[in-house]
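Co-fold these.
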Amino acid sequence: MFNDDQVPKNQTTPAAAAKRRVSIKDIARLARVSHSTVSRALRESPLVNPETAEKIRQIAEESGFRASAVARSLATSRTSTIGVVVTSISDPFVAEVVSGIEDEAIAQNYSVFLANCNADPGRELKIVNSFEDRRVDGIIVTASRVGALYGSVLERMKIPIVLLNNQHPSQFAHSVMIENFEASRDAVSVLIKMGHRHIAYIGDRFGYGSDSERYSGYRAALGEADIAFQPELVVHGDGGAEGGIEAMTHLLEGPEPPTAVFCYNDRTAIGALKAIRAHGLKVPDDISLVGFDDLPLAQYVEPPLTTVRQPKHEMGRLAMQVLLKLMAGSDAEQNIRVAGELVLRESTAAPKEKTACNYSSVPKKERKKRMASSSSRSAAGN
Amino acid sequence: MFNDDQVPKNQTTPAAAAKRRVSIKDIARLARVSHSTVSRALRESPLVNPETAEKIRQIAEESGFRASAVARSLATSRTSTIGVVVTSISDPFVAEVVSGIEDEAIAQNYSVFLANCNADPGRELKIVNSFEDRRVDGIIVTASRVGALYGSVLERMKIPIVLLNNQHPSQFAHSVMIENFEASRDAVSVLIKMGHRHIAYIGDRFGYGSDSERYSGYRAALGEADIAFQPELVVHGDGGAEGGIEAMTHLLEGPEPPTAVFCYNDRTAIGALKAIRAHGLKVPDDISLVGFDDLPLAQYVEPPLTTVRQPKHEMGRLAMQVLLKLMAGSDAEQNIRVAGELVLRESTAAPKEKTACNYSSVPKKERKKRMASSSSRSAAGN
DNA sequence: TCGCATTCTGCACACGTGTGCACGATTGTA
DNA sequence: TACAATCGTGCACACGTGTGCAGAATGCGA
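Predicted complex below.
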């Protein structure tokens, strides 16, 4: 009756049998039940007798059995796996977002495939193909320019996709994004309230949508304060520190340098800071500086950087939560916008007296208080 | 003969059939061959007629077929997948290493599961179990304290493992590590050559092996220069900026503050920098500062930080290469040690005249030259 | 004691791909 | 023309797990 006790015919030698991983059938043999019952017992099915189930679980535990997710995936056509494609893991912004994604994923017993594309289209394609081969249940794309490339491939895959701070918003996908416009407008407004009227914007020529939204916020703040827009105060870098240096140098060597600069991101701001210092000027005494992102290093540069904080970790979790809903078949909010938060540190102050105009609405006393504290304060959002 | 053309019995309706992913059998039906032939054709087996193969490949291409890696894994019992467990992706050091691992992995058509454990033992266990379930072909553990936890689980898994800058070197595993001792000794020696004789060490009390190796290097440099060791000049932080602030403050408030400080890592050094500034002192005029790691931000703090560069990206690639060898069944070098490289920036200089002794061997001219340039120079070499 | 409901278990097949082996078709040689 | 060698193809099974369905075992009421 239990002739399964014999060595199965496909195993040539006992040694070979010992080499093989312990499978559900081995447990079944030990427990003297069928593999079906083992499967059900381990998945806590109510169909199996509690005593039998307990016995099976114990045997499985003792023999160190772990069910193969590979085989299960094949049987259920679900892998409990997602793919995350990023531009570069080395980018601190991305790292923080991935951390949030992974936290949420592990809590729901999902595993994440991580791949960085380095903005290389060929590699992007390879990654997406690989994700398709591995039958991931969903995909999150972070801070990438999702172009024509994805379109065709992703169309075919019919897999839920969530974009995070993507540059090219596309119709078919859900997304989580920072409120670029509002956050930028508020940040520049604060500079204006401090008394600045000669404010520059250093953008990112590879920033696409994000860049134009932040630029629009800058324009809106100027408009609300009836400050005439000066095209020569808008320069574009490459999104990194080097680009910030170049752009800032250009501004400083212009006819009338700004008293404050709003930057596309922190890395650009840090480059700008270096350029300002190289010109023998001081931040914030001569020029105020505002960044975007609130990278970990923002508070450790000298002076600590005033910047718009993105809730990076939270945004990662949010993206994963949306993806989980989509993978479960229920529908989720299409486009989630997250509020930024202006963090006032020591790189901003009222302009110097000689250049300051009488529009300043920030009393000296309060200004001093702000600058003394390096702790963060919310200015832009809930 | 080709009755496969009919709808298979398990498909109830044509609509359901349309919903299913295209499989190898679909291609077989279209090409009027068996699925075996399709499998062989797509894997470029020499067994199949070139013309037939070409036809099959074309049909597969047209219908957008992609073979399921899940099914293949089950059949071949290889997943072409590795697991990477890190302490925290947000750590810039880790991020760079992971980037290197992933570069090498993608080049060899491997995918990587990334998981961060946040130094939480429970989560570590969950991660390793998850990797086992998914039948990863290998595992890389980065900068973790591999303790008893892993031992038992990993023992059972019989999967190749490579440790990278791990704290507890264990016997059964291969590893890639920075030459902590040599790099530290050389860095401190350079400080001594500049004229410093009162040099402190700020360690990391969670650094375990790495910390004691770097500490040993510090002691060795002092010994070689016949400088008496002063226990009160050794303090330990927590490996982060906060710990650096505390430790440095302690040193500054001691009876005889050091003229130079060698820090366990860059983050500690940046905290120390902040503390020094808070005490109204200047770097490097009053105190020289040396870090370890060469994080991206190291060159953007003020002053740019002299530090020991770890070839992070390269170390990641190296670890993956070792793992690939192990997974292929061949054996690889057990313990690879990588040389660090001292990068001289502007946080180091000869001590002030009043405290400087006549042992200084760095002429003023050369010192000036060094400080003017922020470009990196190798001092510790390969 | 019989019939029926309930509870559990096992059979058999599915998931999609790889591969050893047998066999048919074709070609070459005696 | 007969036979052997070579080449290409398909059959059948394996990989490890999930699950619909049939049926065995048990309990319960009449």
